[in-house]
Amino acid sequence: MQILVKVLTVSLNSVDYKPAETLLQHFTFCKPTTPGPGSVGEVIQAPLGCSYHKEDYVFGTAKNAFAGGMLAEYAIADMCHVVSLGRISPEEGDAIPIAGLTAYQSVIPRVKPRNRILINGGSVTVSCSGRNAELCRSLGAEVIDYTRGTLLQDLKAASSDRKFDLVVDNIYTNPELFWKAHEYTTKDAPYALTPFTASASFIRLFLPTNLKWSKRLKMGDWIIEKQIKVVFDRVVPFEQANRVLERIAFGWTVGKIIVKATGSQYVEKD
Question: What is the pLDDT of residue 219?
């Protein structure tokens, strides 16, 4: 079953500029291709027997996580790929469908209480660029600046007393971190390479099957319970969406950028 939604907000991600990145990507995605795999919207029309009704607020993805199509005034979504917005804000809901669930898949199934995690290029010990260090520290992370060029040595020093139980690599600009992971991780520690560092065809093929609606609900609950803090870079009007893609492509973002649809209006419900 599918529903028609009026788009309120759209969260753009690194995968959204991939179709135009190389000549190969022109043969990977069906045309026309519209950015925006995840969004928050108001249900305009739903089939009989559907659990959603007109004026319900939902968040999720289009037909699959990388079909795109949400950066528009109206969009069609499969029921199995959306859930009720509940008590979280549209901006918070927009952070979940792609970026939030990628983080979930990278960490939650692979860790146990008191495990030590290294997140490369994120925000726990975390490696990040110097300009993002203060943000990561404010979130409670130990910080290593990977732009100094001594990351492997810094990790060895940081793990001299206690090695890392999981590595999540969000950037994969230094293959040496993978090949020498045994020098700073525990035995059999997972090394998770997030899909956003891979090619668009790899992302499209392998990630959508993992974006389960039950995990979306769980992450929404965690936001309400303040177990998750969503970091926003900015909220921009629809007309500036092209600038958002530019910022993402050049790595200028610090947090999520939310695109607000023209004329959208969210009315909080009891």
Answer: 87
d(Cα 189, Cα 165) in Å, to the nearest integer? Answer: 5
| Residue 202: band (very low, low, confident or very high) from pLDDT cuts 50, 70, 90 | very low
Domains plus CATH for the chain?
A: 2-100+199-260 (3.90.180.10), 112-197 (3.40.50.720)
Has residue 198 got a pLDDT over 60? Answer: no
DSSP string, 49-97: T-S--TT-EEEEESSSTTS---SSSEEEEEGGGEEE-TTS-HHHHHTII
What Å distances lie between residue 141 and 116, 117, 133, 148, 247, CA to CA?
11, 10, 9, 18, 25
Query: Within 10 Å of residue 76's Cβ, how many Cβ atoms?
Result: 15
> What is the arithmetic mean of pLDDT over 12-21?
71
Q: In the prediction, which pLDDT does 203 show?
A: 47
Please tell me whether the peptide bond between 37 and the residue prior to it is cis, using omega within 30 degrees of 0. no
pLDDT score for 123: 47
How confident is the model over 104-123, as pLDDT tens digits? 888 888 989 999 999 887 64
Contact between 129 and 147 under an 8 Å Cβ cutoff? The reply is yes
Which long-range CB contacts under 8 A does 180-184 form with residues at least 24 apart? 180/152, 183/152, 183/155, 183/156, 184/118, 184/152, 184/155, 184/156, 184/158, 184/159
Q: pLDDT at residue 186 above 90?
A: yes
